[in-house]
């Protein structure tokens, strides 16, 4: 990424915005890592919005969104339809190297097929394989979520399809929307991380249940390596599947992922879901290739960086304080705690 520093240049336009109170105000918290509400035009492809395809086939496409009462990301934008034996798509998020990662999302199962072992969502270590220009040869796709071949049960494994655990007794109703929360626990040491899955047909509690629907499943020596979660993947693995996924929220606490509550501001983070904070660095998701401008609260330009379409990290270390970001013709206030 190309970045230019100009610590002395004054940004008079930002003084005008600041004094007039015209900028959008929000605060970022280290608890909320990344969100995807698929707030794009119906029929758009995910690869047009920063997602990476590593398996060819029918593209993952944006459709109408899902709703679930009580979930903070309900009814925002569209959703993605996973249909047929098609693309597998991935997107990175800021790496988490300790504690727990919660990935909450809405799911509607409309069709399924093939043998058990067809996972449709997983976490990822963020490393690209060699045949995509990266360096990884491990394909560490952990915390895999499955749909049974009849579409009536949900499964979970750490990374081995043959070891997946499934719900029983026709647990899932087709065409019904469920809230699922995938939990990955980073445990010190090797081959001992844990994954769990919570499934809800209604919001019965605002706190993390004592017992998950599936798991916790502990990594073993026969599984893929433990990872520091740094991305999420969606997979279309069989010609008969038809699964809709919506409202993905990744955070380091249950409250932030499911309710949008963080130690700083809670739901107002959703005012700009294309900007988030990790390890005191600011990440932006650009809808177009553009320059993104960063200023301190006095109006001094800290950096300007050219960002490509998709996820970008502003390559500048920042101290705690208030900063202003200008992107896509709008100005935002960002508080780094």
Q: From the helix content, strand content and strand pairing, which structural class follows?
A: mainly beta
End-to-end distance:
26 Å
Just name the CATH architecture of the largest domain: Sandwich
C-alpha Rg, in Å? 20 Å
Tell me the fraction of residues in β-strands, as a range: 35-45%
* The top level CATH class name of the largest domain: Mainly Beta
Instruction: Tell me the CATH topology of the largest domain.
Output: Jelly Rolls
- Count of helical regions: 2
Low-confidence stretches: 1-30, 263-271
What is the helix/strand order?
EHEEEEEEEEEEEEEEEEHEEEEEEE
Would you tell me the overall average pLDDT? 80
Give a count of the beta strands, DSSP E runs of length 2 or more: 24
Helix content: under 10%
Please give the largest β-sheet: 8 strands, antiparallel
Organism: Coprobacter secundus subsp. similis
InterPro entries: Secre_tail
Protein name: Secretion protein
Structure, explained:
The protein is mainly β and 337 residues long. It has two domains: 32-259, Sandwich (Jelly Rolls); 275-336, Immunoglobulin-like, CATH 2.60.40.10. The chain is built from two helices and 24 strands. It has helices at residues 12-20, 254-259, and strands at residues 3-4, 24-25, 32-36, 52-55, 61-64, 78-83, 88-92, 99-111, 119-124, 141-147, 154-157, 165-166, 177-186, 194-200, 214-218, 231-235, 242-251, 275-278, 281-286, 290-296, 301-307, 310-313, 321-327, 330-336. Strands 3, 5, 6, 8, 13, 14, 15 and 17 form an eight-stranded antiparallel sheet that branches. Strands 4-7-16-9-10-11-12 form a seven-stranded antiparallel sheet, with no helix packed on it. Strand 23 (321-327) and strand 24 form a beta hairpin. The longest helix has 9 residues, at 12-20. It is globular, with a radius of gyration of 20 Å. The relative contact order is 0.24. It comes from Coprobacter secundus subsp. similis. InterPro entries: Secre_tail. This is Secretion protein.
